[in-house]
Structures are given as structure tokens and as C-alpha cells.
């Protein structure tokens, strides 16, 4: 396994997850709730930036790898799921909206693994709607973590709530989109036997993942 900057950024994203969650466990005598909101939001925003940066740098520098293709979506899902759980705990997001988004992430991750076994990963490659969904999710989480006025004329709480609704709708839309694309390959198909180690190598160029 080659260790490079894109891989390091992906690991950084995973490390930052418990950091921004832990911010809210700091004693009130150390940080006010307003300071906690700003700090947690800033840490999450940094993690979100690494989500874009690691893939961009891996492609630009030709440092794509099978391990990177595996770790990148895992880090993405952990980041989103952890943030949604925190927002539900803080009573800033409806639990059923969070369940829709989290359930979709689990379902599509399972679909991705199934399609990879069938050798049809490209059939469910990332679509534009998936990218828009990710932007809506990150916008909602950043706004709801902040949860206080930041830009004059913009209600952060309302912006976050609307963005979370948009993310939930796009989440379902994108899920059905990927399921529709995968359906022809799944009808009456049983998963093949596990390939040998030599044939199980993932194409290092397949850095793109379902979003």
C-alpha cells in the first residue's frame, strides 16, 4: 500500500470525525455553546474540503490506488453519518430525515459492493445528482452545526433545515437512479464465487465512487 498525500488527506478526514463530535463534550466552563458551534463547524468544513482535495490530487498526480478507492467512500460515509447523529442529538435535525440519508448511504454502499462482485461497478458510477446531493448534505450540516447568524440577511437555521430537506429528497432520488441502473444486472443474477487474489485486484484508476 503506497502512502501519499491523497491517502493522508483521507485518513485526516477520518481522524477529524471524533474530533468535531468531541467538541460538544467539552465542559461549558471551557467553551460556550456558541464557541463549540463555530469550532465543530470549522472542523467539519475542513474535513469536507479534504473530501474534494484527496480525489482531485490523486487524479492530478496519478496517485490513484485500490486502497484509496476503498477508503475514500468509507471516510465520506462516516463523516456524514457522524455529523447527522450529532445534529439529531442536539435536536437540530429530524431523526427521520437523518434515517433516510443514513439508510440510503448503507443501501447504496451495499449495492456498490454487489455490483463490484458482478464486475459492473461502472454501471453505477457517480452521477451528477449524486454530486448535488453531497453538496446539499454538506451545506445543511455546516449550517446546522453553526446554528447561529453568520451572514447578514441569511437565517442559518432556516438555510440548514431547507438544505437538509433538499438533501433527503435528492438522497431518495439518487438511490432510485442507481437502483434503476443496476436493475438489469441484478435480475436473476447470483454473485460469482470469490475470485483468486490475482484476479481480485481493483483497477487503480477507479477512484470515482458513488456519491
Mean pLDDT over the full residue set: 82
- Could you say which overall geometry the principal axes of the C-alpha atoms support? globular
Order of helices and strands: HHHHHH
Terminal Cα separation, in Å?
24 Å
Radius of gyration: 19 Å
Domain count: the total is 1
- Say how many strands there are: 0
The CATH superfamily is CDP-alcohol phosphotransferase transmembrane (TM) domain
Q: What structural class do the secondary elements suggest?
A: mainly alpha
Describe the overall structure.
The protein contains six helices and no strands. It is mainly alpha-helical and 211 residues long. It has a single domain (5-184), classed as Four Helix Bundle (Hemerythrin (Met), subunit A) (Up-down Bundle). α3 crosses α5 (128-146). The longest helix has 31 residues, at 156-186. The radius of gyration is 19 Å and the shape is globular. Mean pLDDT is 82; it is low at 196-210.
Task: Spell out the key features of this protein.
single chain; 68% helix; 211 residues; mainly alpha; Four Helix Bundle (Hemerythrin (Met), subunit A)
Q: What's the gist of this structure?
A:
This protein has helices at 5-22, 33-60, 66-89, 95-117, 128-146, 156-186. The protein is mainly alpha-helical.
Amino acid at each position: 500500500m503506497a502512502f501519499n498525500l491523497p491517502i493522508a488527506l483521507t485518513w485526516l478526514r477520518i481522524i477529524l470525525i471524533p474530533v468535531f463530535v468531541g467538541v460538544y463534550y467539552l465542559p461549558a466552563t471551557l467553551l460556550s455553546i456558541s464557541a463549540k458551534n463555530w469550532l465543530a463547524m470549522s472542523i467539519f468544513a475542513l474535513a469536507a474540503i479534504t473530501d474534494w482535495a484527496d480525489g482531485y490530487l490523486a487524479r492530478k498526480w496519478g496517485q490513484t490506488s485500490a486502497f484509496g478507492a476503498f477508503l475514500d467512500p468509507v471516510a465520506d460515509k462516516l463523516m456524514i453519518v457522524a455529523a447527522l447523529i450529532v445534529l439529531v442529538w442536539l435536536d437540530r435535525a429530524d431523526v427521520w430525515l437523518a434515517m433516510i440519508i443514513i439508510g440510503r448511504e448503507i443501501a447504496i454502499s451495499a449495492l456498490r459492493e454487489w455490483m463490484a462482485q458482478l464486475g459492473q461497478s461502472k454501471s453505477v458510477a457517480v452521477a451528477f445528482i449524486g454530486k448535488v446531493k453531497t453538496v446539499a448534505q454538506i451545506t445543511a450540516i455546516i449550517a446546522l452545526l453553526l446554528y447561529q447568524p453568520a451572514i447578514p440577511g441569511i437565517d442559518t437555521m432556516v438555510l440548514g433545515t431547507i438544505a437538509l430537506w433538499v438533501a433527503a429528497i435528492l438522497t431518495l432520488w439518487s438511490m432510485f437512479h442507481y437502483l434503476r441502473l443496476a436493475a438489469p444486472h441484478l435480475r436473476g443474477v447470483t454473485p460469482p464465487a470469490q475470485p483468486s487474489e490475482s484476479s481480485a485486484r481493483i483497477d487503480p484508476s477507479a477512484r470515482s465512487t458513488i456519491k
